[in-house]
Design a protein that fits this description.
- The complex is a heterodimer of chains A (166) and B (175).
- Chain A has 166 residues and is α+β, with helices and mostly antiparallel strands.
- In chain A, 18% of the residues lie in helices and 37% in strands.
- Chain A is built from 2 helices and 13 strands.
- Chain A has helices at residues 3-28, 91-94, and strands at residues 42-44, 49-50, 55-64, 72-79, 85-89, 102-104, 112-113, 118-119, 125-131, 139-147, 153-154, 157-158, 160-165.
- Chain A is elongated and about 80 Å long.
- Chain B is built from 8 helices and 2 strands.
- Classes of the chains: A alpha+beta (166), B mainly alpha (175).
Amino acid sequence: MDRRYTAAVLVFVVIATGLTLSSYQVFFGGFTQLTNYSKTPGYDLSGTQLFSNGTLDLQISRVDGPDTYGGFIVLVQILYPNGTVLYQWNASQLGHVPQSAIRNEFPLHPVHSDGFALVVPLGQNATVVLQAHRYISPGTYIVRVYDVDGQYAAYGRKFQATVAVG
Amino acid sequence: MDRSEGSIDGTQMALPILRITLGWMFFSAFLRRVVNVPAKMNPSSSAYVGGKLLTFIPHAWLISGVLEYTVEHPALLYEFLVAWTALEAIFGLFMILGFMSRLSGLALALLVWGIGLGAGWIGTTCLDEWQIAAVEGAAALMFMFTGSRWLSLDQLIAKKYPQGLRIGRWHIPLW
């Protein structure tokens, strides 16, 4: 057997095996904390802003969960730091947000209302403008969203953001 | 067995068991998008496969930036999908036919891991996309070394040109 051929085969045994095992760790933490990020919907609200006139710029991106379905936001809350609700939008309100109040980062699979919920497709990142129609005094608040499964956290990340009203 | 000889041993005879199924995985992707459900290649359809690239972004490995840029430029995305689908059709068919099996093995390995870097984390019940990328990728790389010298077009080509494609004094082992 040609020695260079043997060496080349060994190199590719290492490449193929290395790709398989390293991607197992990268995608699923298979050798440390095994996690499947496409099981349950997860959201990130980084960049969300709240204004004293009651305008909420909900910056929502869908970062976990199934690629073919959902996720469905059925409750958006503004909370005082102690957890008391200051204001909230329910499912029927979130199911009827006009498309003009939603700015999607990517043209495909846009965030939209479907009559029952605010639909946030996997990978999309959008700004959804909601109006509380009330004055909000200066201070720190928590903005939180609930998925239709009743959860506001997944994979150790809460679907909420701390916002300051100046 | 010398790697460049046209000899056919028992191992070579068994390779079509995997080769044809491996090729079909790629060639059938082309059939689904172009023959069965052409809406998959229609940018204004909800079935448009361009949307899949968007779903890869949150946990993609190394290529999140490339995916974001592509999805933000619809014309580029469409051209990318056409080129990708064509490559899957060509090298999938080549693998089925056993034509330039070594080159096809390399091409298919690159294609499957191109998707795998993005989609590898997706799969709601099993680790579906990762399993696809890992197994098809390893299989394709194996064909880069073995070629396929039985039940294949390469069997005929190798009889005449056992050393591969000759350019000057170089032999490129495409089969």
